[in-house]
Amino acid sequence: MSWRFFHRLPVVSMSIFIAVQSDDFCLASEYDKLRRHSACGAVVTFSGLVRELSDNTLHSMTLEHYPGMTEQALIAIAQQAQSRWQLGAVHIIHRVGTLKQNEQIVFVGIASAHRAAAFAACEFIMDYLKNRAPLWKKEHTASGDYWVAAKDSDQQALARWE
Amino acid sequence: MSWRFFHRLPVVSMSIFIAVQSDDFCLASEYDKLRRHSACGAVVTFSGLVRELSDNTLHSMTLEHYPGMTEQALIAIAQQAQSRWQLGAVHIIHRVGTLKQNEQIVFVGIASAHRAAAFAACEFIMDYLKNRAPLWKKEHTASGDYWVAAKDSDQQALARWE
Amino acid sequence: MIKILFFAALRERLDCEQYLLSCEGKMLQVADVLQQLQSRCHTWQQELSRSDLLCALNQQLVPLTASVQDGDELAFFPPVTGG
Amino acid sequence: MIKILFFAALRERLDCEQYLLSCEGKMLQVADVLQQLQSRCHTWQQELSRSDLLCALNQQLVPLTASVQDGDELAFFPPVTGG
Description:
The complex is a heterotetramer, with two copies of chain A (162 residues) and two copies of chain C (83 residues). By secondary structure, chain A is an alpha+beta fold. Chain A contains four helices and nine strands. Chain A has a single domain, classed as Aldehyde Oxidoreductase, domain 3, CATH 3.90.1170. Helix content of chain A is 29%, strand content 39%. Chain A is globular, with a radius of gyration of 16 Å. The two termini of chain A are 30 Å apart. Chain C has a single domain (2-77), classed as Roll (Ubiquitin-like (UB roll)), CATH 3.10.20.30. The A-B interface holds A 26-28, 31, 35-36, 38-52, 101-102, 104, 113, 115-116, 118-119, 122-123, 126, 153, 157 and B 26-28, 31, 35-36, 38-52, 101-102, 104, 113, 115-116, 118-119, 122-123, 126, 153, 157. Strand 3 of chain A pairs antiparallel with strand 3 (42-49) of chain B.
């Protein structure tokens, strides 16, 4: 499912696009949409990928989510970012289901007039997504299936925004 | 001109790619190279675009540079980033010559095992590039040609890294 | 009725995806619901007592002091690990 | 000889891209070279006295106290505005 919102502000238009999907996404086509915001000189993107475990035994992972709540949580996070920084566009795409080695998991893209706002908003969204969006990873490895444990570092990452 | 360096570290391989060119670049093909680093779960990209002036009179801009020194400055900045954070790959592309409205000016892409390192390195490189790389913008507008003045905010952005 | 959902590792350990609880028209706190669920068996007692348990009421994160009523959707799950 | 390059707004204001200066085998500081250039005319005096002037010696940013010798490439330019 995906949502689009358009707000028209005095100076720039602001759009939020959110999608939770099992299909892969295309960074280039998201970027092409982000760079259309003519008042925005800065585009920052983040992509999260399935990476090797240190012992090289990962086959794949499955992402479970809470349908409905995930989308709402992502919209709320995007709106929080929008209220903190002046942004032209916020795109968040999160995949669910089974993903293999090196597949794309998550995309966050920001268009803004200023690079500092674009960087901050993109990192803010990832930090909040990691702690607030109801998604869970299960790793399928040579020695069995394991739910990924939440990381203290992800929780600590929120501190700087408070 | 473009440079490629490959270092082999105990755990991950590190690559630096630098290009100063008049040709446009393709974000998707840079991203495809960055995400090949299998130990890197995080890819952050920054793109700088020619944006409208507030009075909507910009026709185009010309980027002048100091050939040779620009490439060296970008390599030095990439190496500084690499010495501060554990990075899988750093790509920097800067265009020179005449660019129109909404054209791409600069690309910085980082692949890293951790998102915090990828975000920090990407923003660090942009902050240093803005202050240290010998490039100058001249705007061609309806009322004449003007050299862009350096911004205090760009200089202040360095403070946090020192 | 209150619809209760469980996710991820918690869902697997409880061997339960969805559970319907009658609240008999009473106004309850999430903590009261949790206590009723814990009383079902030793496993539920253990799994629903974890200090890192998260709770969402009608798809919004809430603390255990939140009030629940007939028709609400309540969900319990472990710390999230998306992204 | 020392090869001296000027860039961007400075290049335009001096109406000069490249200037060759004989150092007659002497060891000079960048500040000495700058003084010689400033003495050329009023415009050069003015433009090369700006406090935000940057200097690169053999393509590395250096302070005005850096030493210059025969065969060096010296460049002066305004604050950079790339990115």
